[in-house]
Prior knowledge:
By secondary structure, this protein is of the alpha/beta class. It is 45% helix and 16% strand. Strands 9-8-7-10-11-14-13-12 form an eight-stranded mixed beta sheet. The chain has a seven-stranded parallel beta sheet with strand order 3-2-1-4-5-6-15, sandwiched between helices. Helix 2 packs parallel to helix 15 (351-370) and helix 8 packs across helix 9 (219-230).
Amino acid sequence: xxxxxxxxxxNLAEQGxxxxxxxxxxxxxxxxxxxxxxxxxxxxxxxxxACLHVTSETGNLMRTLAIGxxxxxxxxxxxxxxxxxxxxxxxxxxxxxxxxxxxxxxxVYYQHIKAGLDHNPQITMDDGADLVHGVLKExxxxxxxxxxxxEETTTGVIRLRAMAKDGxxxxxxxxxxxxxxxxxxxxxxxxxxxxxxxxxxATNILLxxxxxxxxxxxxxxxxxAERARGLGANVIVTEIDPVKALEATMxxxxxxxxxxxxxxxxxxxxxxxxxxxxxxxxxxxxxxGCVICNSGHFNVEIDIPALEAMSLEKRQPRTFIDQYxxxxxxxxxxxxxxxxxxxxxxxxxxxxxxxxxxxxxxxASEFLVRNHGKxxxxxxSLPKDLDVEIAAxxxxxxxxxxDVLTAEQVExxxxxxxxx
Length: 420
């Protein structure tokens, strides 16, 4: 095998294959799509560059794309999220070039992004829009050959809509995150469980009885709040949107500003997609020993430079914890360098929810191929019928039956003549 990859250690491949096989048992929808892809080869000869978290679930998506005929290259979408054994397994057993190393520097991270672009992709698959950003900023020569892109996460969709608004997004992008079978489940149940898993692994601190602040009340944040309350924490939500703030209040949470909440907090978690959600104003009111972390895609949600400027020194009492000693004697504990804590110190979302998310990714790539030249430039949602198909397959795999409308009921719903 020629060395067209950059990973930590090829000798980790066997453990990575076991990890992917274990995850695959919880991914029945993607398995059914893979079986169809193997028979139909809808991606035959299509060059795909994927910038995703390199996990066991992602490994199974890469297998699916490759079996469908795609020529795939995978790069990391976060310096701390790579599972090195999975990267090795994809290279050794699937012959998929991977450029990802857990703990890679920012320079190496962008070298790996460049490697994904050097594949001359016809489809890019993003988790945060870094490949699309690279195409537009550094490799505009690729645009003429692009079928389009798919985007996995809320943060990436925010970036893409900004690109479209500025008129620079010159090819179609499927906002996979907008699919109901993605954001209603992955964002809420996946982020909720995996974020708490990451915090507990990093700190081993009991959450019951603690005050737990959640920045934002979108689908990711409400999942985190729900799981924290389930573990016995007293949850406070911060928001900028009056409707979401009202919803959080009606769901039984205290709602206040971040500056107010920080004074009570034992833990603060952000998941908003915005920058400096925790800033100098919040640091000024935090209790000694407060634990802060982020579950949004980029590490800008926590203003780390401001924290460093307020500190005399930094220590590391445990792996994944940077403890900042402030000039006034307080200590603030930052988890996972401010990066996604569910992937920095844990394993990311459970396979069962990624099954639906990556089913969306696989079908979105097929949709781009089938509709090449028909879609306008900009951000598109995956068609509703594909969303429904994924949900139906998931229910079938879980052994759950649901009702079907009778002909009489269909007629009633489509008619206005029948009165009360």
